[in-house]
Specification:
heterodimer, A: mainly alpha, globular, B: alpha/beta, four-stranded antiparallel beta sheet, 7 helices
């Protein structure tokens, strides 16, 4: 699995298509946080929203790094399409952790904020929740589940909008309201854990569903 | 490796293959012939496990499989050598042995453009060599090649033939496709033909004889022993006949109002 993860990572790095999602993430964070001196929680809430979109994008980039012919070779050498799918998830997850670190500490470079452990913990949980949700969307929108680029983009945008904007759809929208509201709770441990767990379940479900579609398509 | 009662269809589409029974023994080189779209690639995808049969059983598929698809990886930006080392590691080699084996294969296949060139900047034939090399990094117990002789120059044909024979000698099974029977016959122990979704044993054709009618009513050659195909051309016919029947056929044809234009193997 290490060799496969290394290959997927190298393939993505060589393709350079990972750059746009990171640049968009950093640009939005830069616009949102310039000369800001308020509480960090609303910033982290918005960062989570942006990370949902960029994680979806990154997942599609990683999953589509191999073209179908190349993918056939990789699958045979790796001993099954399931292993390639797991490697895709692992590489994307690592990419999302990097994005989360940017999101956590970038605001400190451009504004004056007081960083406390609970705030960092809440921010991390919010962004990873969004990242897992984005990955869940991306896995089901990328090849080989959806092969046409047009349908891929429309499905991904539609799903992102549902998770971001439709009130009460767990797990990202409630987290957004929880942190960006006028009175963010001091220790929202319970709800954050709940929504984090929902996001992880979404990712697991999406991986299983992607596997189902890949096997059926073959 | 055994295939029993294999049928394959995609979704609700027509059956691409049906009722396929196939035994592959160790050390055997099998050629699959058939027209474009007959289902050759589908059979190969089933063999390597990229595709699952809709009905039927595949038993005894070995763990170490080399697969050479007919399409090359055109988008790969990493160097040919780096790509091969990655594939070797995925197959379970450590970096050092993977690099050594990659260099060895690059040298044997005489890769033009260099090991350091990114794969997508290689010519079609040279990219095909990389696809071939990745399948041989670890000696495969099953080597499956889709139209491997197409797009390679004559010098590489010889190397490919050697590599295929080596896999066979080491006890691996080899299955390859080609739409040209002459090539399929030359490099295999036995041939299979796919037609109408069915797979059947296929005999080597032997020689191609081109004949022109000289009499008013030349004898019909279609029913002659050993004749597998009679194709009509403008003012000639092309007859495919088994090796052991070629002299008999020529005698019949010459005595029966035909003139020989050419005889080719």
């Amino acid at each position: 699995m290490t060799a496969l993860v290394r290959y997927v990572l190298a393939s993505v790095v060589h393709s350079q298509r990972y750059l746009p999602p990171y640049l968009v993430f950093l640009a939005v964070m830069g616009i949102l946080t310039s000369n800001d001196a308020g509480s960090l929680l609303p910033i982290y809430a918005v960062a989570a929203g942006v990370e949902l979109m960029c994680a979806t994008w990154l997942t599609i980039v990683v999953a589509n790094a191999d073209d179908p012919g190349q993918r056939a070779i990789t699958v045979v050498n790796a001993g099954g399409s399931g292993r390639v799918l797991v490697a895709t998830v692992l590489v994307t997850a690592a990419g999302c952790v990097v994005m989360t670190l940017f999101g956590l500490f970038f605001p400190l470079t451009s504004g004056r904020h007081r960083l406390t452990v609970p705030v960092v913990a809440i921010g991390t949980a919010a962004m990873l929740t969004a990242a897992c949700t984005g990955m869940a969307i991306g896995l089901l929108c990328a090849r080989p589940v959806i092969r046409r680029t047009g349908i891929m983009v429309l499905t991904a945008i539609g799903a992102m909008l549902v998770f971001l904007l439709v009130p009460g759809v767990p797990p990202v929208n409630p987290v957004f309201h929880l942190l960006a509201g006028d009175q963010p709770p001091a220790h929202p441990v319970g709800p954050m854990l709940l929504f984090g767990a929902i996001a992880v379940l979404l990712l697991a479900g999406s991986t299983a569903l992607a596997r189902f579609f890949i096997v059926r398509r073959d | 490796m055994l295939l029993r009662g294999i049928g394959k269809r995609y979704g609700d589409g027509p059956w691409v293959l049906s009722g396929v029974d196939l035994d592959l023994t160790a050390g055997e080189v099998v050629a699959v012939v058939g027209t474009n779209g007959a289902g050759k690639s589908t059979l190969l995808r089933l063999l390597v496990g990229l595709s699952r049969p809709t009905v039927g059983d595949i038993r005894g598929r070995p763990a170490s499989i080399g697969y050479v698809p007919d399409r090359f990886p055109p988008h790969e930006r990493m160097s040919a050598r780096a790509y091969l080392i990655h594939m070797g590691r995925i197959r379970g080699l450590r970096t050092e042995p993977a690099a050594r084996r990659a260099d060895e294969l690059i040298e044997r296949l005489a890769l033009v453009g260099g090991a350091g060139t990114s794969v997508r900047r290689l010519s079609k034939g040279n990219a095909q060599k990389i696809v071939l090399a990745q399948a041989l990094l670890v000696p495969p117990d099953l080597l499956v090649l889709d139209e491997p002789w197409s797009g390679l120059d004559t010098a590489t044909h010889t190397v490919l033939a050697e590599l295929v024979a080596e896999v066979g000698h080491a006890g691996g099974s080899v299955v390859f496709t080609d739409h040209r029977e002459a090539i399929a016959a030359a490099y295999s122990h036995r041939m299979l033909r796919i037609a109408g979704g069915r797979v059947s044993a296929h005999e080597a054709v032997g020689v191609t004889i081109e004949l022109r009618p000289v009499g008013d009513a030349p004898v019909t050659l279609a029913g002659h022993p050993g004749v597998t195909e009679v194709r009509e051309r403008q003012d000639a016919v092309v007859v495919l006949v088994a090796d052991e029947q070629r002299d008999a056929l020529l005698r019949t044809a010459l005595a029966g109002g035909w003139s020989v234009l050419s005889v080719r193997r």
